[in-house]
C-alpha cells in the first residue's frame, strides 16, 4: 500500500509541477512582452539615420509637431 501511495504522489506531483512550470513560463513571457518584442524585432523600434544627413534643429521639430497637432503638449 505504501508503494502505491508513493507512485500516486510521484505522478500527481510531476503533472502538477509541469502545469506550474507552464504557468510560470507564460507569465514571464507576458511580463517581459515589450522587451522580447524589441529584442526579436529591433527594426520596428530603432531607426538608424542615414550617414550623410544631419539631425534637424529642435525648433524645426517643434514647429512640425505643432503643425500636425496644435493641441500637443511638448515637454522637455
Automatic annotation (TrEMBL):
Q: What is this protein called?
A: PepSY domain-containing protein
Matching Pfam families, A to Z? PepSY_TM
This protein's species is: Hymenobacter cellulosilyticus
PANTHER family linked to this entry: IRON-REGULATED INNER MEMBRANE PROTEIN-RELATED (PTHR34219)
Q: Where are the transmembrane segments?
A: 12-32
Entry keyword set: Membrane, Transmembrane, Transmembrane helix
The taxonomy runs: Bacteria, Pseudomonadati, Bacteroidota, Cytophagia, Cytophagales
Amino acid at each position: 500500500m505504501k508503494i502505491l501511495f508513493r507512485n500516486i504522489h510521484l505522478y500527481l506531483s510531476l503533472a502538477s509541477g509541469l502545469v506550474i512550470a507552464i504557468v510560470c513560463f507564460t507569465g514571464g513571457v507576458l511580463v517581459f512582452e515589450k522587451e522580447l518584442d524589441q529584442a526579436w524585432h529591433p527594426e520596428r523600434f530603432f531607426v538608424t539615420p542615414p550617414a550623410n544627413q544631419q539631425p534637424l534643429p529642435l525648433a524645426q521639430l517643434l514647429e512640425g509637431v505643432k503643425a500636425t497637432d496644435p493641441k500637443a503638449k511638448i515637454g522637455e
